[in-house]
TrEMBL record:
Keywords: Aminotransferase, Pyridoxal phosphate, Transferase. One of its GO terms (molecular function) is pyridoxal phosphate binding. InterPro entries: Aminotrans_3, Aminotrans_3_PPA_site, PyrdxlP-dep_Trfase, PyrdxlP-dep_Trfase_major, PyrdxlP-dep_Trfase_small. Transmembrane segments: none annotated. This is Putrescine aminotransferase.
Length: 451
């Protein structure tokens, strides 16, 4: 039998648990309760199979920048499906949606980031980057430049390559990651790791770790440094202001490629088109995905500077995916970018709803559980603590306060996530002031219930 959104919830959940393996999910937890079945969505709101309306303060997985239910994107997909549902861009062929989308990304991307290598996801794009930076140096006659430096608690994807680039220790203990040739330094998380240092000194100290690592490995052996402008999945970690200028100086000093993973930060999330602009860095390569299509189609890519692209073009880069530059995904992404631009969505985040969300979100620090609220554009985190003054963490037995708060949010029809004892948000960029009020009210109530 084919089930429908109107099938009984219990039946949907039974079939789900019987046959569907969920990512990043402990199976037993799911079986006890069953997954919530999301059936429709409009704007910032999800509907579930039991008739609840849920405010999605995570924009799915940080991706539905434009909000749900935009018919223009559905129509762009339908048109493209009828005209040319698939063709590849290997072996001397191309097609109009890939041509237009690459050109549009080149226009929007800062500096001379003018060349796009398409993938279907952020993970694939970061795998591309790993091979690309090493190929770049080999082509430049420096094949010994193999090391890529990343940060602990970074998230760059789930494939073996991108998961190794990431610094999620829980992932590294399963299935043979990290692969060789990747080194990690500490993250610029002042709240949790800054001790007695000022944020400014701490930012400089964490940037200095990059230089130390480069010197330890030998600058002649290092290919690239990869980082998210604002760490997302690690808990929305916003680096102190001193961090990025130092990092830029260090990569410049040693001539190392800088890869900005913009999978979350890109396409307006931080109040500029790209997070690199917000934190003031000049990457040689950007990873993009998520907001590129607002999640309506799976698409990602690597955006290369003129210089990197010209070196790579000097050889055949033996790399590509069947769905690199998929025409339907490209057509949908192009329409998404048109709407983000023409409706002034990014500007509104910068000058209107973003500042309003910041003010309201920061008011949550009045709650006894909340030590710090950090927010950049429309990505934010609350650090929960038993003692604000010492920035203490909850003892491990009680270290589930974030989890409990998340569960209370879920029950209160608000999607927030927790990373340890941080509560995080990343709502659709089109969220209104009234919806922001609902978000804050429900978050406060959920914190109260968890307290
Ligand atoms: N890079 C960052 C910064 C991400 O947040 C993610 C996903 O959350 C990825 C890469 C991986 O992207 P995907 O899940 O599309 O493979």
């Amino acid at each position: 039998t084919i089930l429908t959104p109107n099938s009984p919830t219990a039946e949907l959940q039974r079939a789900d648990a019987a046959h569907h393996m969920h990512p990043f999910t402990h199976g037993q937890g799911l079986n006890d309760r069953g997954a919530r079945v999301i059936t429709r969505a409009e704007g910032c709101w999800l509907n579930d199979s039991e008739g609840n309306r849920i405010l999605d303060a995570m924009a799915g997985l940080w991706c539905v920048n434009i909000g749900y239910g935009r018919r223009e994107l559905a129509q762009a997909a339908a048109r493209q499906m009828e005209e040319l549902p698939y063709y590849n861009t290997f072996f001397q062929t191309t097609h109009v949606p890939a041509i237009n989308l690459a050109a549009r990304i080149a226009e929007l991307a800062p500096g001379d980031l003018n060349h796009v290598f398409f993938a279907s996801s952020g993970s694939e794009a970061n795998d591309t980057n790993l091979r690309l930076v090493r190929t770049y140096w080999a082509e430049k006659g420096q094949p010994e430049r193999q090391w890529v430096i990343s940060r602990w608690n970074a998230y760059h994807g789930s494939s073996v390559g991108s998961g190794s680039l990431g610094g999620m220790k829980g992932m590294h203990t399963q299935g043979g990651m990290p692969i060789p040739g990747i080194a990690h330094i500490d993250q610029p998380d002042w709240w949790s790791e800054g001790g007695d240092m000022t944020p400014e000194d701490f930012g400089r100290a964490r940037a200095k770790q990059l230089e130390d690592k480069i010197l330890e490995l030998g600058p002649e052996n290092v290919a690239a440094f990869i980082a998210e402008p604002v760490q997302g999945a690690g808990g929305v970690i916003v680096a102190p202001d001193t961090y990025w200028p130092e990092v830029q100086k260090i990569v410049d000093k040693y001539g190392i490629l800088l890869i900005a993973d913009e999978v979350i930060c890109g396409f307006g999330r931080t109040g500029r088109w790209f997070g690199s602009e917000t934190v003031g860095i000049r990457p040689d390569i950007m990873t993009i995905a998520k907001g590129l299509s607002s999640g309506y189609q799976p698409i990602g890519g690597s955006v290369l500077s003129d210089e990197v692209a010209s070196v790579i073009s000097g050889t055949e880069f033996n790399h590509g995916y069947t769905y690199s530059g998929h025409p339907v995904a490209c057509a949908v992404a192009l329409e998404n970018l048109r709407i983000l631009d023409e409706e002034g969505v990014v500007d509104r985040v910068a000058s209107d709803t973003g500042p309003y969300l910041k003010e309201r979100f920061e008011s949550l620090t009045d709650h006894p559980l909340v030590g710090e609220a950090k927010i950049v554009g429309m990505m934010g985190s609350l650090a929960l603590t038993p003692d604000k003054a010492s920035r203490a963490a909850f003892a491990s037995e009680a270290g589930t306060v974030g989890y409990i708060t998340r569960e209370r949010c879920f029950a209160n029809n608000l999607i927030m996530r927790h990373v340890g004892d941080r509560m995080i948000i990343s709502p659709p960029l089109v969220i209104s002031r009234e919806e922001i009020d609902v978000l804050i009210e429900r978050a406060w109530q959920s914190l109260d219930e968890a307290h």
